[in-house]
């Protein structure tokens, strides 16, 4: 069957089945892992600003309750439908398992184009949606914890936590009912750039594997790698920026209105700020333009990072891709047909399901912060700084030498919240990359990294069921 015969959820099931063959679990366990445990479809009225009444269609899916709470974003988009929410919820189950975040997968969606509603209408929709979730026990710090996704952000999360808290007076852990909140409402520092940073950590780790890079005909390391990024939004901008800071060369960037390139490198902030001023990436003068924005995907580069939309590389353009490694920062940028073609061509695809897990990993840190009611670093920062100062003083006295002011500042610094969040994310992404790569290396029949990632996820979820004694 080709791409066109599969729904989004069908495509996720197809990838699952492809990987399940490499596991030892019986069919019943696999069917249980694959199934969506609970699908809540709702409709409620909205009185619009002009006095008319509209019926709003919305969903919350809990794909797996093998661990609770369930976790996954809420999407506001005109295309939202049950199949899409189910597919995204399933991906969350596997994503959480791979990065060892102890949650089941969930996802929510409201079928609206948020650009067509006033802020007041959006607030009413978000608060009513939250109330509907509360009525059916589909939200709560121990049951189901939403987060931002396409079309939603800190503002919507603030409305959700406010509605939940108002309807649960005295619930001490109420702030943990949703993540991605503003810091003033219990959010965590570092959440905004978390997904891009996770993408960077994940690809950097693959680049540091000499045997893998040798197969691709590339030297190990990130420095000097030529990188093209599709989409300069939250994920694309931060990913590109972290790569540039690490010494990579950003050779191509694309946005919804066009694509630009410069073989000697584009300065990410310069392009970003120029676009903010002029309104278009195409007005940037220190670059050449592609005639069609899609051509950027096919440009000569080492690493291609789609960070915008679904299904941008399919059976049609996959044969023309010239990158040696593709990092799926967006959700679902490759179709199953593209996967097969690229695997045959020896191009490594670092899969979305784990590569863009930085958001959910830091969401987990935010949830832990909410349950512990204390900012990361608050207890130990000053103690560590005093101790570091004491140790350095002793060393200087014993050696008779002084370190530079710059070194001193670095050594004395006690960890802030953002330092600890970055460090936890780095550890998570490095660990997950090695687990997936080891699975792939240990079984040469596994055709690609996505399948290896699914194998890791299936094994972790299945073990939980087995250990619960559900499947003796
Ligand atoms: P965003 O809206 O901030 O950015 C998307 C960008 O892509 C926008 O700047 C948009 O103009 C641009 N774009 C639209 N059409 C394009 C086209 N045809 N070519 C090039 N650029 C185009 O969204 P985001 O939060 O950065 O999310 C991007 C992707 O990453 C989505 O697939 C999302 O599901 C996924 N993702 C995001 C997060 C997160 O924490 N934000 C976490 C996991 C996965």
Total of DSSP H or I helical runs spanning 4+ residues: 16
Give the integer mean of the pLDDT values. Answer: 95
Low-confidence stretches: none
Q: Determine the CATH topology of the largest domain.
A: Rossmann fold
Instruction: Write down the domain tally.
Output: 2
Percent helix: 40-55%
Break the fold down into its secondary structure elements and pairings.
Blueprint: H1 8-20, H2 27-34, E1 38-47, E2 53-62, E3 70-76, H3 82-98, E4 104-110, H4 119-135, E5 144-148, H5 154-167, H6 194-207, H7 210-216, E6 226-230, H8 234-245, E7 249-255, E8 258-261, H9 268-278, E9 288-289, E10 303-306, E11 325-327, H10 336-344, E12 348-350, H11 352-355, H12 358-372, H13 381-399, H14 405-412, H15 417-442, H16 449-468
Parallel strand pairs: 3-4, 3-5, 6-7, 6-10, 10-11, 11-12
Antiparallel strand pairs: 1-2, 2-4, 7-8, 8-9
Helix pairs in contact: 1-3, 1-16, 3-16, 4-5, 6-8, 6-12, 6-15, 12-15, 15-16
The chain binds nicotinamide-adenine-dinucleotide (NAD).
């Amino acid at each position: 069957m080709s791409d066109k015969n599969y729904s989004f959820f069908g495509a996720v099931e197809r990838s699952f089945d492809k990987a399940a063959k490499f596991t030892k679990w019986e069919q019943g366990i696999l069917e249980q892992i694959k199934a969506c445990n609970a699908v809540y479809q709702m409709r409620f009225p909205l009185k619009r600003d002009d006095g008319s009444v509209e019926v709003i269609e919305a969903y919350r899916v809990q794909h797996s309750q093998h661990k609770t709470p369930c976790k996954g974003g809420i999407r506001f988009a005109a295309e939202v439908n049950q199949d899409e929410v189910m597919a995204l919820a399933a991906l969350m189950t596997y994503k959480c398992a791979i990065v060892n975040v102890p949650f089941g997968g969930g996802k929510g969606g409201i079928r609206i184009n948020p650009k067509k509603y006033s802020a007041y209408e959006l607030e009413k929709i978000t608060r009513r949606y939250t109330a509907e979730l509360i009525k059916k026990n589909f939200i709560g710090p121990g049951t189901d914890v939403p987060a931002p996704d396409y079309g939603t952000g800190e503002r919507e999360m603030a409305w959700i936590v406010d509605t939940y808290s108002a309807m649960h007076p005295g619930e001490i852990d109420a702030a943990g009912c949703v993540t991605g909140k503003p810091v003033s409402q219990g959010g965590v520092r570092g959440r905004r750039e978390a997904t891009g940073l996770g993408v960077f950590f994940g690809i950097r780790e693959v680049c540091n594997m000499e045997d893998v890079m040798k197969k691709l005909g590339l030297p190990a390391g990130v420095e000097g790698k030529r990188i093209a990024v599709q989409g300069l939004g939250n994920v694309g901008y931060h990913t590109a920026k972290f790569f540039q800071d690490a010494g990579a060369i950003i050779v191509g960037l694309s946005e919804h209105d066009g694509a630009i390139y410069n073989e000697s490198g584009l300065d990410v902030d310069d392009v970003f700020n120029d676009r903010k001023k002029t309104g278009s990436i195409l007005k940037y003068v220190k670059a050449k333009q592609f005639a069609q924005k899609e051509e950027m995907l096919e440009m000569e580069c080492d690493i291609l990072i789609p960070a915008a939309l679904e299904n941008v590389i399919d059976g049609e353009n996959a044969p023309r891709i010239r990158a040696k490694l593709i990092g799926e920062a967006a959700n679902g940028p490759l179709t199953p047909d593209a996967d097969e073609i690229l695997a045959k061509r020896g191009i490594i695809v670092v899969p979305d399901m784990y590569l863009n897990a930085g958001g959910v990993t830091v969401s987990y840190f935010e949830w832990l912060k909410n349950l512990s009611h204390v900012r990361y670093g608050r207890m130990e920062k000053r103690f560590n700084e005093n101790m570091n100062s004491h140790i350095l003083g002793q060393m200087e006295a014993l050696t008779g030498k002084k370190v530079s002011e710059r070194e001193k500042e670095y050594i004395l610094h006690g960890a802030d919240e953002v330092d600890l969040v970055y460090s936890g994310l780095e550890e998570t992404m490095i660990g997950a990359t090695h687990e997936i790569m080891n699975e792939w290396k240990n079984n040469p029949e596994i055709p690609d990294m996505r399948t290896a990632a699914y194998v890791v996820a299936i094994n972790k979820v299945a073990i939980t069921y087995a250990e619960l004694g559900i499947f003796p």
